[in-house]
Amino acid sequence: MTLGAPMNQMTFSNKQGWDGLAETHYKNYHIQTLLDGKPLLNELIRNEVGDVRGKSLVHLLCHIGSDTLSWALLGAEVTGIDISPLSLKYARQLAERLGIQAEFIEADVMEVMEKVDRKFDIAFSSTGVLCWIPDIRRYAQTVRYLLKDGGFFYLFDGHPFRSVLLDPAGEASDHLQGDYFRKEVWRYENMGDYTEPDLKIPLPSYEWNWTMGEIVTAFCDAGMRIVFLHEYPQYFYNGYTPYDVQNDQVELFPCTFSLRASAA
């Protein structure tokens, strides 16, 4: 449905929702695997990003830091940025339990350029990011701002084409009926969660829709060069396997994509 509320109210509501999910994700994500020293990053992402040893890496929308700290286990010097203070509380706890030096910064991704004064070799975002971005051009500009010249950005996320499978209420269906070019903001009541289907946060959540053309153009306009754009017929979880891009369900349309862009 369409929205008339100011964008900052939408962002604040989403922030509260992610605060409400932080403890649940800390319990349900594969934290023990991480504590055992095994990165929670699938092989596809690791192979496409490459060797991070000795590199500085910033993770935008890092949530509870499980992927951020996975990069640290692989040798990167890591910084995580997220809007949710409770998520970052768990991220810092994880870093302490792992004995990893990591910095976690509380900031709305739309305000990072005003709050962070540092450059990185790599910027990273993955799995369920773009729907929370109210301004794709500002996001791309933020990525470029954070990168050193010669650095690169890597993104892995759900493919925009999947939006045509959403019914008018925003629920997934099994046939084409959605508007790929939709500009209205989605509003969902009682924010839910994929790790606990019965859990409902008593707040609305807001999601944005971006086409592939808008995504690619935003990074090009921000002064970055697209190195590759890959598309995949699997989604990044089937039920709850968020760290395995390979699963049993292979579609005849693109479900996920990865993008790598370099900073000149």
Low-confidence stretches: 1-5, 238-246
Overall number of strands: 9
**CATH A-level architecture:** 3-Layer(aba) Sandwich
CATH homologous superfamily - what is it?
A: Vaccinia Virus protein VP39
- Tally of helical segments: 8
Secondary structure layout plus pairing:
Layout: H1 7-28, H2 31-35, H3 43-49, E1 56-60, H4 66-73, E2 77-82, H5 85-98, E3 103-106, H6 112-115, E4 120-126, H7 136-146, E5 147-158, E6 186-188, E7 205-207, H8 212-221, E8 224-232, E9 256-263
Parallel strand pairs: 1-2, 1-4, 2-3, 4-5
Antiparallel strand pairs: 5-9, 6-7, 8-9
Short characterization:
The protein has 264 residues and is α/β, with parallel strands linked by helices.
Overview of this structure, please?
Residues 1-5 and 238-246 have low confidence and may be disordered. This protein has a single domain (7-263), classed as 3-Layer(aba) Sandwich (Rossmann fold), CATH 3.40.50. The protein has helices spanning 7-28, 31-35, 43-49, 66-73, 85-98, 112-115, 136-146, 212-221, and strands at 56-60, 77-82, 103-106, 120-126, 147-158, 186-188, 205-207, 224-232, 256-263. The protein is of the alpha/beta class. The chain contains eight helices and nine strands. The chain starts with 6 loop residues before the first helix and ends with a strand.
